């Protein structure tokens, strides 16, 4: 199915409603280390202009600002932007947060030295348009750096579990394709040169698999929204299904959870 046959605007409206449900930063803030590692991999330097695309509560923008870069974050969920502003203020970091769509970024062509996204731009429904925007706003010789969950890792498996309860929109490719080298090559072509493609693990540390399930059902907006549509019996089964996912990736020998979730850290130089 071609992209013209898919109503991406309607899909994004539903996505935005999902992210504005629950309290995603309660999950997203735990992922800060991914952004710090990505900023290092991208070689973010003082005084560079850095854009965090689909920034959520600003993990990568804050990481850039800590390195004295001129940081900007863009997201379409205004509640997440507000929490980003609160975090920046609390750390006395000068970060600009803009409301905007990853598929139509509200910034000029070739205006950033570094363009980052930590498990953010991967959720844009029109993959090609989002990739085109990343290239458009990056200055020649600048770097695009992405951290994306892989299809076979824990989060990829969680999304598969969720899709059994709420099938994804027809015609939209899985977000976790961004976590594969082949898909990045397809999206970006010869406009960039990939300089590092590294598979890393983020470890989800919770009290138990059941605690993980509870936390995501309460705070991870799209999952929170889905859970609210289920009957009492189905909610109980959905809770159990979610708990089974991290349990399969847990390597702790005590009662607590340490579930390893693979993601692809990819850094490219823009031609």
From TrEMBL:
A single GO molecular-function term is: S-adenosylmethionine-dependent methyltransferase activity
All copies of the Methyltransferase type domain together span 51-145
Please give one Pfam family short name.
Answer: Methyltransf_11
What's the protein called, per UniProt?
Answer: Methyltransferase family protein
Which InterPro entries is this protein grouped with?
Answer: Erg6_SMT_methyltransf (IPR050447), Methyltransf_11 (IPR013216), SAM-dependent_MTases_sf (IPR029063)
Keyword annotations: Methyltransferase, Transferase
* Keyword Methyltransferase belongs to the record: yes
Origin organism of this chain? Kribbella voronezhensis
One Gene Ontology term of the biological-process aspect is: methylation
Q: Which PANTHER family match?
A: GERANYL DIPHOSPHATE 2-C-METHYLTRANSFERASE (PTHR44068:SF11), ZGC:194242 (PTHR44068)
């Amino acid at each position: 199915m071609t992209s013209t046959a898919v109503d991406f605007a309607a899909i994004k409206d539903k996505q935005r409603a999902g992210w504005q449900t629950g309290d995603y930063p309660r999950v997203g803030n735990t992922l800060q280390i991914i952004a710090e590692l990505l900023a290092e991999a991208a070689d973010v330097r003082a005084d560079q202009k850095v854009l965090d695309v689909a920034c959520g509560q600003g993990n990568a923008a804050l990481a850039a600002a800590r390195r004295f870069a001129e940081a900007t974050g863009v997201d379409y969920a205004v509640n997440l932007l507000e929490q980003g502003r609160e975090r920046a203020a609390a750390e006395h970091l000068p970060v600009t947060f803009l409301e905007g769509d990853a598929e139509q970024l509200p910034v000029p062509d070739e205006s950033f030295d570094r363009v980052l996204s930590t498990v953010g731009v991967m959720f844009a429904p029109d993959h090609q348009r989002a990739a085109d925007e990343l290239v458009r706003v990056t200055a020649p010789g600048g770097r695009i750096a992405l951290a994306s969950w892989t299809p076979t890792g824990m989060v990829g498996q969680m999304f598969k579990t969720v899709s059994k309860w709420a099938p994804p929109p027809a015609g939209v490719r899985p977000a976790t394709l961004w976590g594969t080298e082949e898909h990045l090559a397809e999206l970006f072509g010869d406009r960039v040169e990939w300089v590092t493609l590294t598979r890393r693990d983020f470890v989800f540390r919770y009290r138990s698999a059941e605690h993980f399930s509870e936390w995501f059902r309460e705070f991870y907006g799209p999952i929170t929204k889905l859970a609210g549509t289920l009957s009492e019996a189905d909610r109980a089964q959905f809770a159990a299904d979610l708990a089974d996912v991290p349990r399969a990736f847990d390597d702790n020998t005590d009662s607590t959870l340490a579930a390893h979730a693979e993601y692809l850290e990819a850094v490219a130089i823009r031609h």
